[in-house]
Amino acid sequence: MKAIEKVTRASHLIDMDDIIREGNPTLRAVAEDVTFPLSDQEIILGEKMMQFLHHSQDPVMAEKLGLRGGVGLAAPQLDISKRIIAVLVPNPEDADGNPPKEAYSLQEVMYNPKVVAHSVQDAALGDGEGCLSVDRNVPGYVVRHARVTVEYFTKDGEKKRIKLKGYNSIVVQHEIDHTNGIMFYDRINPNNPFEIKEGLLILE
Q: Distance (Å, rounded) from C-alpha 114 to C-alpha 43?
């Protein structure tokens, strides 16, 4: 059974066993564009990927299914070499611990996403990055664009263009990298992992 057939079965909930780990050649392949109209399978795949992110951020479901928390997932991580990503970035509570007005700052399944413009300034997360396909801690600054403009298609074939900055920008770039066979640690300086070049914005 192909990976896409397994994960898109009606009864299937994506779990950590479905996510391939570093060393698997699919993670180093350049994924194929999807064509429109999408197949039912490709639409269901996007929905299942988003469902996984919701489950991974829900303490009860995450424990039940044994999930690591995630804010993004790309189809190649499921051994499906297609340009499909899902991102789910929660908004933080306010200083008083009240829930945010909008639960998520970014919640989208993107088909054929690509960065079409970016800032000169680079940015990196102060705590580094992790990945559901990497079971080890890789310290260092993962240098990315501070701001990006991303074009993508919705499941209905509608073309969208969004401008992203800060954490959302980093998350989407991380997932788009997966569709291009790039791992986050490829962007860490191997000789000086915590090097701060002039103008590098550190996001805490």
A: 19
Topology at the third CATH level for domain 1-200:
Peptide Deformylase (3.90.45)
Residue 22: active-site member = no
Mean pLDDT of all residues in 140-155: 98
Selecting among 22, 175, 195, 204, the annotated active-site residue is 175
Q: What does the pLDDT look like over 28-70, one tens digit per residue?
A: 999 999 999 999 999 999 999 999 999 999 999 999 999 999 9
pTM of the model: 0.97
Cβ contact 176:150 at 8 Å? yes
- How is residue 108 written in tokens? 């989208």
Pick from 24, 30, 14: which is nearest to 66 by CA? 14
- Going from N- to C-terminal start, the domains of the chain cover 1-200
Residue list for the binding site for Fe cation:
131, 174, 178
